[in-house]
Amino acid sequence: MKYLEEFQNPELARGLLEDIRAQVTRPWALMEVCGGQTHTIIRHGIDQLLPEGLELIHGPGCPVCVTPLEMIDRALEIASRPGVVFCSFGDMLRVPGSDRDLFRVRGEGGDVRVVYSPLDALRIARENPDKEVVFFGIGFETTAPPNAMAVYQAQKQRVRNFSMLVSHVRVPPAIEAIMESPDCRVQAFLAAGHVCSVMGTEEYPVLADRYRVPIVVTGFEPLDILEGIRRTVRQLERGEHRVENAYPRAVRPEGNPAARDMLEDVFEVTDRAWRGIGVIPRSGWRLSERYRDHDAEYRFDVRGITTREPAQCRSGEVLQGLIKPNQCEAFGTTCTPRTPLGATMVSSEGACAAYYLYRRLGTPAVPLEASPVA
Amino acid sequence: MGHGGGGAMSAELVENVFAPAFGGLVLAALGDSATLPVGGERIAFSTDSFVVRPLFFPGGSIGDLAVNGTVNDLAMSGARPLWLSCGFILEEGVEMSVVGRVAQALGAAARTAGVEVVTGDTKVVEAGRGDGIYLNTAGIGIVPDGVDIRPQRARPGDVVIVSGEIGLHGVAIMSVREGLEFGAAVESDCAALNGLVEAMLAVAPDLHVLRDPTRGGLAAALNEIAAAAGVGVVVQERRVPVPDQVANACAILGLDPMYVANEGKLVAFVPRERADAVLAAMRAHPLGAAAAVIGECVGEHPGMVVARTPLGGTRVIDLPLGEQLPRIC
């Protein structure tokens, strides 16, 4: 932890903030792509410390939030079936489908289990040959390789009762969709470091050129975020639009070749619907033809699902950076983590959840070092 | 499941379902234990149930928890715990040797805490209807004259002290339950705190609030106190003692140490003029050696806990909803 602590050092943070303040001459709007970055920003109060006019717009980078309602309903339907063990990462359990969530399915007797790795789900399949074990494979390029590995292993080890409900998404097409929107205000991107640690940076120069936006690959600790902002602002002030890597301790230009090979083997690119945004061409992955036996969508007949999205929920606009969470009328009133209308309020990386958790009551200013006793 | 997590959902269940059904002024106080007048004395009375899995974990067992949990609930009202009851709910098929080990651990913990198990009960449920062993303990203690410790007594100006490093129990349980290892082994902090409370009361009989931050962690305890007293709490985040292993595990799983359970820690709201003496008394006790001032009680933002982040920003520390869920990436 000493290592991580270095990236939260208040003195170094102060230096970076001073540098940012010294550079900014006019208003700029930056988008942090990843929900993990949003939470760091709000949890540490980084947005409160930036100079006036330098705005952070929260991006669509929360995999739980962008998983389409239809896919959640499909998961709920499969998880409810007798003889199915439905495995998922923890943060999907409270995400609302049209009329319930995975917790509710478990309460109703469904065998829903939280796992920490897709390989845990594979192990459960080996240990329960009489059950159908389904893993909910969601996430960006970060979680896709281990999920691909689990399917690869299932095929290799002939674990026939293991399948995956796949809803993986890719970041670069989402950046394109945001920049193509007529309402787009984004002038630069803090790219998601974890995604780039897998995929490298080669997909980004074409985007930086086409849309004339700086893209700075950024990590997740407070100093990473500040360094990302500092470099982005420097480019904007100079009129540049390059791809920069401010996260070299994790990201190499070529990414992780072994992980990319695994992705290429197991998945194929497909159009994918994003919750609140709509279909983005070539923005997702599905299992490729030769792994179809392990595709839960094919194994379970769950077509013809009709979804009901709450009309008041504006999470789509939040995900595109068009409004801040607290600009939604339902925020903190009809929509809370206890009664979420959308996934952005319930996901641990959701922007609405970050605002509700850390800001919702209008956080009062606390005097610096208001400390009573040494 | 969230209704048992010690967070907002637990509080709703108690406030909306149990309290109206049971009635009574004492329950309305909703402290860790009830303080009752008996003759010229005041007794504290508390009960708790234990459904932990696995039954044995690094640093303790369900038997230790069953004693220490109830002893601590009594101690948090300043009482001197004396007697415990113990109910065993056994699942058909559980090994007798396991029952024996749990009973041994329970007896040893009671001796360490200086309390006696004076009555008990055993029930057996069918196989598949329990996790081996569930325990319930209830306890009685005597509240010394002049001591009045309850959440409603927090006052602006009070200094907030935590007795040591937080998050150890929750991370220890997670590490064995989920088969996760976080580098150095993490042991639960499970311990009886009545001795530490006695040492604190010896220098400050007018302590305002004590609370053991179990399920829901420090965040839940501070929020409950802020709500009960109608005061605000300001926490200096970097003063909160978080051990490296806990910080590491939480960073990996996307959890916040402020919300992770403890079983051998307390948080105290102390009149400002007594803070130095209380802190010294705590640090002189083995269970309070790493005690630290983490913040203060304020008149602003009543009912709300606010943290000053190490970078100089501020954030709300809310009551957790239910259990924390590990994130996807």
TrEMBL record, chain A:
Short name of one Pfam family: HypD
One annotated GO biological process: protein maturation
Stored NCBIfam families: hypD (TIGR00075)
Metal-binding as UniProt keyword: yes
Keyword list, A-Z: Iron, Metal-binding
Name of the protein in its database record: Hydrogenase formation protein HypD
TM spans (from-to): none
Annotated family: Belongs to the HypD family.
GO MF entry, a single one: carbon monoxide binding
This protein's record includes keyword rRNA-binding: no
Automatic annotation (TrEMBL), chain B:
GO BP field: protein maturation
Gene3D superfamilies cross-referenced by the UniProt entry: PurM-like C-terminal domain, PurM-like, N-terminal domain
Protein origin, superkingdom: Bacteria
Cited InterPro entries: HypE, PurM-like_C_dom, PurM-like_C_sf, PurM-like_N, PurM-like_N_sf
Domain PurM-like N-terminal: 32-143
Residue intervals of the PurM-like C-terminal domain: 155-301
Classification via Pfam families: AIRS, AIRS_C
Family: Belongs to the HypE family.
Protein name, per record: Hydrogenase expression/formation protein HypE
Protein's organism: Kitasatospora camelliae
